[in-house]
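Below is the data:
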Amino acid sequence: MSKDISIKNGANLALTGVASKEIKIAKDSSTVAIYPDDFFSLIPRMIVREGDRLKLGDPIFYDKNDEKIVIVSPASGIIKSIDRGEKRKILKVVIDVDGDEKVRHEINETLTKEKILSLLLASGSWPYIRQRPYNIIARTDKMPKAIFVSTHSTAPYDVDYDFLIKERLNDFQKGINVMSKIIGKPVTLTSSANKESIFSNINNVDIININGKHPSGNVSFQINKINPINMGEVIWVINPEDIANIGSFFNTGNFNPTRTVAVSGSSVKNPKYYKSQIGGKISSILSESDISNYKGNRYINGDPLTGNKVDFDGYIGYYNNIFSVIEEGNQYRMFGWLPFKDNHIPSFSRTSFSWLFSKNKKFNTNLNGEERAIVVTGEMEKFFPMDIYPMQLLKACMMQDIEKMEQLGIYEVIPEDFGLIDYSNTSKIEAQEIIKDGIQLMLKEVG
């Protein structure tokens, strides 16, 4: 089955520094780390202590809200440190890599739905599955009405999944087969329209071809068009590489922490793909010599619109296939409000006149202004291709009005859906943070 849908509104940011179609094997990382904040709303309860020895696939911590959900070690080694912040919040768990011991799980040829679910939980592969609403790790007591895997990517510096998965099609197909058996029907696989794809021959999928600018690659908008979530319903979302990692587990019996990262950005001298692992050290894929203006950049786990800032000596995030390096915008622009000043800065605003110039532009972190009042301009709706009023939803979240938040569509969105609004709106509000706080409130008050 294959059909096309078009998603209107949105915009593409044509930026310099897109990763070339070349994969390099990253250097072995001497340490790896897991950030609990990569798992939205998860409250970690430690299983191990500093100095404990782990095999690849051994549990590190579990979710206090659901003890069946465990996060496992992406490498064999010894717990080097458990870094904590205010109120003893766990910031990251660092492991000294040592040896190649792996936890082995027995995989029978006959896999029932119950056995598949049990193996996913026991192996630590379950966190690859995220749940809508809220984009939390899927809850073990609620089966989904559908499973979405999106290979249609539109975010700045986003990856080409045809290129990324082409050498892992057997694992990908196995992962699809396993997840299809859980729901008893094909997985929904979205692909880019008007493009030859390696995924066209995958079995046990309903292929939906997507037309549209960014954020048409965001799964929220695809779900809204293809299979909207009604009250009490759940949909599972899995990244393409994580489907392959799940398939690899069922082929080998070993947890697979592979993470292929597109290292991109105008500050990267030779942007390309690197094959690494979850939690790998950033310095294992980049060195100071690979970066222009080493100290004057921002390093981001993810794309520039929705990613998380990380230090150069930090680690690759659990889910991200993108690592971005862009210039810090820490230079004051005198008379920056003048329309003909610094027109190289990309903007959707017609007052800046940057739209008259080159399509491929450098990107930095400058806000180009301070926070202002939210006024009705229609600019948010222009870049939000969903039948939701984004400005009204943001205001309801700021007022913590749960009833209005429900009416305005809080169950259908996640923070990254507001990345383009963060960039384009003239009020300079942090829309993603507002939505994140709103979802946290819903989890606490509604569940």
In short: Residues 270 and 408 are 44 Å apart (CA to CA). The longest helix spans residues 169-183. The chain has a mean pLDDT of 89. The two ends are 35 Å apart (CA to CA).
